[in-house]
Design a protein that fits this description.
258 residues; mainly beta; 16-stranded parallel sheet; 6-stranded parallel sheet; elongated
């Protein structure tokens, strides 16, 4: 537990959480801003290392957050986990985000790799790379809430990126590299897209939900794919350009507000 009022600023070594018969699950509680060098889970799934704490506190990890095959990390922390180096979840490992934001703020080009399990996901992901550095994806990635691109570049490296919440790119479409992969808007909540240029956008929203382009936002889609019986693409005062349709004609639900 990192208690309120404590002063943790570790530049060497790291925190490792191992399996134990008396403590099958472990939790790192964050109740004060703290900086550690690295964090690694050796908790064998379905056991896990959880990160929890207070919404106002940030856990900064200078070197990286790691889990090798068979081990698990669970994020319940409603605040920010600020990673300044790699986030590497090996094939066969587990990383589950249920709250808060993982912020990637590396000073040089780096990558995020989530394991092969279909359960691996972020809750919120913020791209805050420094010195115009590029963050690349090492595998198809799921974000169960929001994506924010606030500095640097995001390159999915031709992997698919699935998002349930809002897409915010506050620094311009040039800071997202389209590649050949798809951005899939899915989930049982509406999403707002605040401008972007997509290679392929897949509308896989629950049928009562929407992808919304608000006033002041411009979205261009090279290839739009509406999945049968899925949600509405709504232009709510924004600008939308679609170069091509995957379907052989205009299918799905559309709404344009004046």
């Amino acid at each position: 537990t990192i208690k309120n009022g404590s002063n943790i600023n570790s530049t060497n070594g790291g925190f490792m959480f191992n399996d134990s018969t008396t403590h099958p699950n472990s939790t790192l509680y964050v109740y004060e801003n703290a900086t550690i060098n690295s964090l690694q889970s050796y908790k064998t799934y379905p056991n896990y290392l959880a990160i929890a704490g207070d919404v106002s506190d940030t856990l900064t990890i200078n070197n990286g957050l790691f889990a090798t095959s068979g081990y698990a990390i669970r994020v319940d922390h409603p605040g920010i986990i600020d990673i300044k180096n790699s986030l590497s979840i090996a094939s066969g490992a587990y990383f589950n985000g249920y709250a808060g934001t993982v912020r990637m703020s590396c000073t040089t080009n780096n990558s995020v790799t989530l394991g092969s399990s279909a359960n691996n996901n972020f809750w919120n992901l913020e791209i805050s790379m420094q010195n115009n550095a590029i963050l690349s994806l090492g595998r198809a990635t799921l974000i169960k809430n929001n994506l924010i691109i606030s500095s640097g570049y995001l390159n999915p490296a031709n992997y698919d990126l699935t998002i349930y919440g809002n897409w915010t790119n506050s620094i311009g479409e040039g800071h997202f590299t389209q590649g050949t992969g798809a951005v899939i808007f899915a989930g049982q909540q509406s999403s707002t897209c605040y401008g972007e240029h997509f290679n392929k956008l897949v509308n896989q929203k629950y049928e009562t939900e929407q992808i919304i382009i608000p006033e002041g936002s411009a979205v261009r889609i090279a290839s739009y794919d509406w999945v049968d019986q899925c949600g509405t693409l709504r232009v709510n005062g924004g600008f939308l350009m679609i170069d091509d349709l995957v379907d052989n004609g205009i299918y799905g639900f559309w709404r344009v507000d004046a």
